[in-house]
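Hi everyone, sorry if this is the wrong subforum. Our group has a chain we'd like a structural model of before ordering constructs, and none of us has done structure prediction before. Sequence below.
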Amino acid sequence: MKKIIFAVLFTVGILSINAQSGGPEVLKEVKAGDMLQIGSPDAPSFRHIDFPRANTIIKNGGIANYKKMEGVKVVVTAVKEKKDGTLQVKIKRTDGGRFFGIHSVVSADLKDALESGELKGI
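Answer:
Right subforum, don't worry. Here is the predicted structure as tokens:
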């Protein structure tokens, strides 16, 4: 019985935190040219920003340091709605650099990235 009560309270707490984050409101306003910032992922790696795998980065001569991506300011270059209804954005760095020294543009699932904290509005 205690486990059920704890699970219900935990779920209510998580839902209230997500409701305060303001992710979906930002979702409707994002267009090409908007500035965002890369945040820290909930998981050990980024799941909603399509960064290449570490072995691919190393093979191409880059440095696979995902921690350095936190706090990097990016600009949205394109917004595309996929067939399943999700919004996919292409982002590039505002400082003109490349991601991991090899990729100038990466894509991300906008809604999921904003909700998980991988992308933040500035």
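For your construct planning: Residues 21-26 have pLDDT under 50 and may be disordered. The chain is about 35% helix and 25% strand.
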